[in-house]
User: Which sequence fits this backbone?
């Protein structure tokens, strides 16, 4: 065994240093957002800018709810999140159906589901709007939620996971006289917890961030989501950067918190999906 | 008899489970493709929406018009600009960071994995609002930092070419996370024995990287390249929220062109034709990549 050369000795600290410098650079927008959101309206326009607020204030955050309608936007966003979890359940059911049942044309149907992933959003955007318009669902919460309920990629991941569940387990439950839905809810869902964890986080993030579709469908401010509200704020208070930063922070921080708790599952989820 | 009964029940229950999601997908993904195809041959606009008798079939007129539309040319040029610069940068940075993160397993590496992933799950509007402030010519942090180096102010979002680059920086920052995780998952799937074999053969660090690690990542690299390219060809949200396509249409992309024609000018037929051209671009690019990959010999 030869002794470690000088190069090998400094390699590890060097990699760590590289990661830290890069990490700080990547975090600059976040740190600047948080710092500025606690500044007073006039302070954010100071030249030279100060790193930390001189009189930290919560005023901007309070203003979001008092002068602006962030309470309403938050409520709408949470409704969308709630429905997206219903969608998650539908996707899980479909994944289970594709994984564990045999019927004619199943493979073809599954390929069609996969093929829908290729379709760019810009192609379906206009016809979906026209369809919802015909159904009288524009400017309604249903119209905002409905098209996003089924997600092909999610069905695919659920199917991949559920294929690995042993058939004998399901057969045994059937012999015990359990109904199909009973089996799904009491047996399959508990086994599929890891994939539900990953999909649950991704669904939450997607729904929380949803912007374009609510913007297209919602005409009334009472249906706006947080991101639509934030873009409205950016237009109305173009020079009040402190207020803008508070609005952005209000959207970003919940995601950051949820993600730091569950990040382990997201990484595992990608390993699980078999992308190696 | 029992066998038949069983397969009937299998079919019934199977369909029951898949029906809700597949129906929604059918109505909001498959049917719209067909509708888009038909309306791309019509002059459907707000008048037509109010009364269907105002819609008339105009053949290839929308497509012909698109080919002489200066703005559409510009949006194709800009989209190619975004793709050619942005996609290699995303792949380079996400692979590079994944390799660095794969170096160790200590707490530090887990924390930084989260740090690098964070931008990709951050809301695009929040990102646009924050970067809009950072890019501000007068009060922005970037120009202040440049002034410390006594450099001139950069018109981040007000010069057509620089604005494109500014949007690319933002999109690369946001795009690294997810691809980095895919590379990381692939790296962790490489058996340790391969590295040991390389070591016994006397390969140094760089030889191991270029002759063992990177070739073994070819499936992940292919997946990342295909999905990133498809994503960047649909480049939309960044110019939509940051510049609205300006200045002087310098940042308008094909996707934004379609959105503007559809939802701002209500020229649904024209926009649908544009969206089909984008669709064809995407299909052709993807097919070419699969073709190139097939000629890639196994070893």
Assistant:
């Amino acid at each position: 065994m030869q002794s470690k050369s000088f190069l090998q000795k400094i390699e590890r600290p060097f990699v760590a240093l590289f990661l830290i410098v890069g990490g700080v650079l990547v975090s600059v927008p976040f740190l600047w957002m948080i710092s500025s959101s606690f500044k007073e309206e006039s302070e954010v326009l100071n030249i030279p800018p100060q790193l930390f607020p001189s009189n930290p204030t919560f005023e901007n955050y309070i203003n979001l709810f008092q002068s602006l309608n962030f309470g309403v936007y938050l409520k709408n966003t949470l409704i969308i999140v709630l429905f997206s979890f219903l969608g998650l359940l539908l996707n899980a059911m479909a994944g289970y159906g594709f994984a564990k049942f045999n019927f004619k044309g199943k493979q073809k149907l599954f390929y069609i589901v996969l093929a829908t992933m290729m379709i760019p959003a810009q192609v379906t955007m206009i016809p979906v709007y026209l369809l919802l318009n015909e159904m009288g669902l524009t400017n309604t919460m249903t119209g905002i939620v409905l098209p996003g309920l089924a997600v092909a990629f999610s069905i695919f991941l659920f199917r991949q996971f559920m294929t690995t569940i042993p058939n004998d387990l399901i057969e045994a439950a059937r012999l015990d006289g359990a109904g199909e839905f009973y089996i799904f809810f009491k047996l399959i869902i508990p086994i599929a917890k890891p994939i539900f964890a990953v999909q649950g986080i991704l669904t939450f993030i997607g729904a929380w961030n949803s912007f374009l579709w609510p913007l297209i469908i919602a005409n009334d401010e009472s249906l706006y989501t947080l991101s639509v509200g934030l873009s409205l704020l950016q237009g109305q208070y173009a020079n009040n950067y402190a207020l803008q930063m508070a609005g952005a922070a209000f959207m970003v921080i919940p995601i950051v918190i949820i993600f730091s708790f569950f990040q382990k599952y997201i990484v595992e989820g990608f390993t699980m999906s078999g992308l190696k | 008899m029992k066998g038949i009964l069983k397969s009937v029940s299998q079919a019934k229950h199977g369909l029951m489970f898949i029906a809700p999601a597949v129906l929604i997908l059918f109505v909001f993904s498959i049917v719209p493709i067909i509708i888009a195809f038909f309306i791309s041959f019509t002059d459907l606009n707000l008048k037509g929406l109010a009364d269907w008798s105002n819609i008339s079939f105009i053949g290839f007129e929308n497509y012909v018009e698109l080919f002489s539309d200066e703005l559409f040319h510009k949006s194709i040029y800009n989209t190619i600009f975004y793709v050619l610069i942005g996609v290699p940068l995303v792949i380079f940075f996400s692979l590079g960071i994944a390799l660095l993160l794969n170096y160790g397993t200590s707490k530090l590496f887990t924390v930084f994995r989260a740090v690098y992933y964070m931008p990709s799950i951050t809301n695009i509007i929040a990102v646009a609002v924050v970067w809009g402030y950072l890019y501000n010519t007068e009060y922005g942090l970037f120009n202040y930092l440049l002034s410390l180096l006594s450099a001139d102010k950069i018109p981040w979002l007000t010069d057509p070419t620089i604005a494109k680059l500014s949007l690319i920086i933002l999109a690369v920052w946001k795009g690294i996370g997810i691809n980095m995780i895919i590379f990381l998952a692939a790296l962790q799937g490489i058996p340790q024995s391969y590295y040991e074999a390389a070591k016994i053969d006397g390969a140094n660090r760089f030889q191991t990287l270029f002759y063992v690690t990177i070739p073994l990542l070819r499936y992940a690299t292919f997946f990342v390249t295909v999905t990133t390219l498809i994503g960047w060809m649909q480049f939309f949200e960044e110019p939509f929220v940051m510049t609205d396509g300006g200045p002087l249409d310098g940042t308008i992309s094909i996707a934004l062109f379609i959105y503007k024609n559809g939802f701002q000018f209500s020229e649904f037929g024209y926009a649908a034709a544009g969206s089909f051209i984008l669709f064809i671009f995407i299909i052709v690019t993807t097919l070419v990549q699969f073709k190139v990959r097939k000629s890639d010999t196994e070893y």
